[in-house]
Amino acid sequence: MLIWVFAIPLFIAVAQIAMWMAAALWAVRWVRGELSDESSAVEIPEPGPAGDAFALIGAPIIAFYGVSFLSAMLSRDQVESLWDLREVFLFAAPLVTYAAFRHPRLRRWGIYSFAAGIFVAVVWGYIQVALATGDGFRPSGPLSHYMTYAGVLMLAVPLLLAVRYGWRTVTMQILAALALAMVGLTMTRSAWLGCSAALLVFLASRLVAGTAGSERTRRPRLAVYGVTIVVGFIVIALLLLAFAGHEAIVERGASIFDPENATNVDRLAMAATGLRLIATYPVLGIGPGLMAEVYPAWAVEWAVRQDNPHLHNNVLQIAAERGMLGLTMWLWMVAAFCVGAWRVLRYSGSHGEGGPEARAALAALAGFLVMGMFEYNFSDSEVLMALLFILTLPIAASAGLANKNGG
What we know:
Layout: H1 2-7, H2 12-36, H3 53-73, H4 78-84, H5 92-100, H6 104-131, H7 146-162, H8 168-185, H9 189-205, H10 222-243, H11 246-254, H12 262-280, H13 291-298, H14 314-348, H15 355-371, H16 381-406
Helix pairs in contact: 2-5, 3-4, 3-14, 5-16, 6-7, 6-8, 7-8, 7-9, 7-15, 7-16, 8-10, 9-15, 12-14, 14-15, 14-16, 15-16
């Protein structure tokens, strides 16, 4: 389990193999228990404040991929569409997280292992920046693309900030600041916006009070909190200025609002093309994985590029490829994870058991969705696996709370 979460931000192949092995072992154990009627084989926890985990998140996942399979079978290229659906195997991540990290101590070790992987990835990126020659270099760390790298680091930041275990708190905050600065150095504007959304949600969630009678009532120390935020942003700013320079950061940031920027114009063209496809194939779309094949024939005449592999937008991409029915199931799935995390946060509060993980999950989901307005990050295996791990942590904590209260 720990090898899996450590490898997520580093080596996706290793992470997938470790995850599938863990899922297979759990399945074998479950089958053996069912066949032998041994009560000690696999523990099925009582539903906690998040509710029945399998009904909450299992149903929308099955529904989404059921619609996706139907879309693939009715597409113009069934083989290509079915191959694109291999992403479904990444959804073993919620099962493994739920099975492995219900106990607080094991959950802490899972977070520490993930943080260790992030530390290696961040150091890797800074070494790349230090050794780079010439302008325009964008670090990708151990991953294949700088956007994927930025997306994984963005998701990790709220989880790192959620750690509240003695001296490890400061260590994780320093690592979070280094990760944020590295996101800045990738020059990935969508990740910048995603980080902003994630931090906003994370800070706001600190004010949520729990309803559990045993919750430790602690008011946020706003002065200390404010000083920490200011110091963190100063450190991040200094790192950005030292490695990238003032001009590069300002120019890249200003380009977000430039209507004549070629990238911005092409993103609008992708959106217009996507809406064309949705209007023509509204129910089940053109089929998963076929955007690159059909885009040249459907691109609007003012598009900068005529060969885009995807629409750089999660909602438009899923609606165009899997139809409005597929988009509805996807939104249901996203909402289910959000509801699960919110229920745990509302029960435990920002400091109770499972509360910090719930804050991290809600913040990571907000960052993912905002970044997904400008990138098709749902298709990035590393980003999706990291997201599913983080989103399932509060649901695993919920099961632990049920067992604890029941005992």
